[in-house]
Write the structure tokens for this entry.
Amino acid sequence: MQKSNELFQKALQLMPGGVNSPVRAFRSVGGTPFFTERAEGCRLFTADGASLIDYVCTWGPAIHGHNPPQIREAVARALEAGTSFGTPNPYEVDMAERIIDMVPSIERVRMCNSGTEATMSAIRLARGFTGRDKVVKFAGCYHGHVDSLLVKAGSGALTFGNPDSAGVPEAFARETVVLPFNDEAALREAFVTHGPNIAAVILEPYPANCGLIPPKEGYLQFLRDLCTEQGSILIFDEVMTGFRIAPGGVQEKEGITPDLTALGKIIGGGLPVGAFGGRADIMSCLAPEGPVYQAGTLSGNPLAMAAGIAALKMLETPGLYDDLASAGLRVASALRDTAEEKGIPLQVPQRGSMFAMFFTENPVENFDQAIASNADHFKAIFRHALDNGVYLAPSAFETCFISTTHDDNAITRTIEVLADAIKAL
Ligand code: KE4
């Protein structure tokens, strides 16, 4: 790791934590990060010549693996015409049409440059549309570094948010009500207390930023019905799950129609992107049609659109989602079986090509249960895997992703390495 270490020492002098995004610093798993020089298919190739089977997939976008020729060629073609125009361009129309066709609830859409921008804008839109101020979120759900969403519950079923980051004024946090996920009583109580002032409820429909926590049977429908009853906007943050769980995301899989959806990651094909969209009557409140302002210098950038359009086209491959889900189930089942043989309490929630590991006795249903799991065991698994050529998400509170390029050899090797890691605990 000599070259990576040298680069990291230099990076530490230049960038806070030596990174451009905190989780990459390996602070929660120990050690220092490797530097990647090239990525191809399911593998990262490090500055020190190592080759790693990658389950981070650049945090979700690389559903087709790294550097697929279809995306590379689409970007190269777009690049011939220039990098950015600052005017409407044909790619934006193509992208908007595809998103509206693929995501059941989206009638109109706005492109932006990150998932954070998408959720931030959806919240502002919901507040502008309803004239209400409060927003309900769930402990453990991450929606990007939006001031008003960087808050999490104290203890107890219902609390005012306390800032989870310096720099977030108490006044902002007070407008955020943080609840435990999968708890219908807490939701009902929040609406009894704040109902007429709740602009929106925002959630990851499959929370995947605290490991992976599937919703209980009926919970999403309960949320939908309560928001309808109370006139609050239901926002699905599908930045991660959109186009990953199904072409139309979790909302297609579960048959739930949110009012607004935030998107990102896969629709950029690896380039910076975000999008939000939903009911036409809500979206018509957005400038320049309506009073809710939102903008972006590079929103709808032709290179990002070209990459994303290529990625969306590739999702039309017959059997793609079934194959991804089979691979996810194969890994999850193998890990469960090994842990059971070894007598290690391990939960491996898996949805499609997403899986996580919680070292704990019982299925995890909320954030408090997630953080009670054995993070030291996860760190040991992470380290053993990395030392043996398998790169898992560098935190117990992230989710792993499988791509269409994780072939049988890669999955078989991964299962061998992770089984050895579990046996060594
Ligand atoms: P970005 O602003 O990072 O593009 O998207 C924020 C975001 C919003 N919503 C969900 C459900 C997300 O998962 C994310 C970003 N995900 C994290 C990791 N789980 C990105 C990695 C990072 O922060 O470096």
